Amino acid sequence: MPFNAEKFIGKAVSSIKDSVGDGKAIIAVSGGVDSSVAAALASRAVGKSVYCVFVDTGLMRKNEAKLVKEMMARAGVKLNVVDAGADFFAALKGVEEPEKKRKIIGEKFIRVFEAEAKKQKAKFLIQGTIAPDWIESGGGSRDTIKSHHNVGGLPEKMGMTLCEPLRDLYKHEVRIVARALGFPPEISERQPFPGPGLAVRIVGEITPEKANIVREACFIVEEELEAAAQKKEIELPWQYFAALLPTKTVGVRGDERSYQYTVVVRAVRSLDGMTANFSHIPPAVLQRISTRITNEIREAGRVLYDITNKPPATVELE
Amino acid sequence: MRTGVCMAILIVDMGSQYTHVIWRTVRDLGHDGKIVPKTVPRAELDEAEAVILSGGPSSVTKDNFHFLPGFIREKPDGKAVLGICLGHQLLAHTLGGVVVKGKNAEYGISRIEVDAPGVLLSGLPASFNAWVSHFDEVKGMPEGFISLAHSDTCAHEAMEMPEKKLFSVQFHPEVWHTENGEKILENFIRQV
Fold it and tell me: Helices A5-20 and A171-180 meet at what angle, rounded to 10?
């Protein structure tokens, strides 16, 4: 019996009702399909008692805050945006270790939510956590692959009760629920974006400068692959983005020596994110991406295409 | 399998990334999976209609598997067991086979060549892509088992002893990237 969205929606709505009761809840919304679905279920369950918070971490995609706000407005969700960029960059300064970065981000998110919850007198935090988030975060006999900000990145002490209606679902099932809830394709089919944002696409230390480089590179990859998919040159990958390596390499530009960063382009096929294989993007499309990245981003000197599957790699680099 | 009947299947979690994906696939096939930790008491193992042993990061020669080896050795013939990855190695090790660190590890895609489809791989193509993630491997088969398939790096990718309802695979039939993976789990459940 394949996954049944209607049955799931009914069960999830009543379980949110049971746990939140007459209380108030805030919901962490990122603009991705998981948190959007969680928000819609919460609003069905407890209506006006939910308050949607979007945290702008400064590590979002290009135009993301604006885009998400408009997208949510069209879906009838009122978003309250908290601009915490400066805070996130300050906390991440000098930190290179991926798990440490993820834990700092998880804790920052919770502190922002706690502050909002206090203002709203909310006792519950609803999150769009899905199965791979807690599976990869580890625990018991399962190794920690990466601490997802909404699970393994949570601080030990927090002043809210968690409610995670999508815990047993995978991305493809969340999309089925999103379609059943009537979300437009711009939300239901949106490619996954990691909770810690561009932080996990900058290998090593994060700086606002590096965030700008990887943000522009991600934008180019998205534009080019979406255009190629539109022209039927490729099947749109499950997830596609750019990441920045801290390694600089030598180049020559306009007869001058250059010494600039390395950008990794990654595109994968998957169903649920648990396993993935690299997309077989034709060289002509890769060439357009590489030329644009090195022409449009001064700090990018070299472009690599990641040809590793999951396992042994993961989809994101950190 | 009694057609249309929803089977209760115990999924023993030995720490695999894919334990919950086994649960999902079992549900997609119309059955009722229940995930239990590897410390599951013997009585619960004995009561289950079928048991699936997940993969995991540990090694059969180093880790403690609590009541699982005893159950594997003493279970009644009618009770079906499927071992996956570490589960495959645990079946082999417990029943007298040899599990060693492989010469080469296998991660991601692997081409499985079917030598004898047996019950577990029946209806599958002679060769298919599967997803693997392991270092240890079964080098010597336990007595009474038939080796069903191999890959370039691993001699025993699947084995079975149908009269005892013991089945196992080194690769991961539960993940989306394994071609015909669901069919393998279906073949197993049909033996319950």
Answer: 90
Element (H or E) spanning B160, and its range?
A: strand B158-161
- Give the model confidence (pLDDT) of A154-201 as tens digits: 877 888 999 999 999 999 999 999 999 999 999 999 999 999 999 999
Question: How far is it, in rounded angstroms, from Cα B191 to Cα B110?
Answer: 27
> Closest-CA residue in chain B for A276?
B177
ipTM rounded to 2 decimals = 0.92
Residue with token string 């991660």: B107
CA atoms within 13 A on the CB side of A241: 23
State both tokens at A103: 């834990």
Q: Which residues of A touch B153 (CB under 8 A)?
A: none
Q: What angle do CA A132, A145, A103 make, to 5 degrees?
A: 90
What is the predicted pLDDT for the residue at A78?
85
Say if residue A185 is preceded by a cis peptide, omega within 30 of 0.
no
Q: What share of chain A is helix, strand, coil (3-state, %, to 5)?
A: 45, 20, 35
Interface test with B, best of A1, A129, A268, A275 (most B CBs within 10 A): A275
What residues of chain B lie within 8 A of the CB of A274, using their CB?
17-18, 21, 175-176
**B37 contacts A141? CB cut-off 8 A:** yes
Which residue from B minimizes the CA distance to A145? B17
Do residues B131 and A275 touch, judged by C-beta distance below 8 A?
yes
Residue entry with tokens 């393994």: A152
Asked if residue A86 lies in contact with residue A46, where contact means CB atoms within 8 angstroms, the answer is no
List, in order, residues 6 or more apart from B45 with CB less than 8 Å away.
B10, B12, B51, B67, B68, B71, B75
* Cα(B146)–Cα(B158) distance, integer angstroms: 9
> Under an 8 A CB cutoff, do B107 and A274 touch?
no
Which run of H or E residues covers position B43? helix B42-47
Q: Both tokens of residue B134? A: 């392991």
To 10 degrees, what angle do helices A33-46 and A171-180 make?
50
pLDDT tens for residues A15-45?
Answer: 999 999 999 999 999 989 999 999 999 999 9
Give the residue numbers of B marked as catalytic: 85, 172, 174
* B-chain residues near A131 (CB < 8 A): 20, 24
Q: Do B38 and A2 lie within an 8 Å CB cutoff?
A: no
Whole-model pTM? 0.93
Query: Per-residue pLDDT tens for B120-133?
Result: 999 999 999 999 99
Give CA–CA dist B59/B46, Å, rounded: 24
CA B102 to chain CA centroid, Å, is 18
